[in-house]
Amino acid sequence: MQSYKLFIFDFDGTLVDENFHLSPNVKDAVIKLVKRGIIFSVATGRPYRGIVKEIFESLNLVSPQIVNGGAQII
pTM of this prediction? Predict the structure, then answer.
C-alpha cells in the first residue's frame, strides 16, 4: 500500500450505509490510512451540512473534501 498517496471515496453506500451509519471497520480503516500519511477524501453530491459534516468531523478529516456535486471543495 506504500505506493498509494490518495484515496477518494463516494459517501452514500461506500463510506456510510443506507442509514448513514459509519461502520467501526470503515472508521478504523480511514484512521489507519490517514495515520500512514495517505490522503483520504470523499466526493459526494450532498451539501456540506448535517450528516456529511458530522461524519467528516467524526473522522477528523483535514484533507480537501468534494461536496455539492463538485461545486464546492472544503
Answer: 0.87
- Do 7 and 15 touch, CB atoms closer than 8 A? no
Cell numbers describing residue 17:
450505509
pLDDT band at 2 (very low <50, low <70, confident <90, very high): low
Q: What torsion do the CA atoms of 31, 33, 34, 40 make, to the nearest 10 degrees?
A: -100
Sheet of 72-73, strands arranged across:
6-10, 39-43, 66-67, 72-73
| CA-derived radius of gyration, the chain | 12
- C-alpha cell at position 20: 448513514
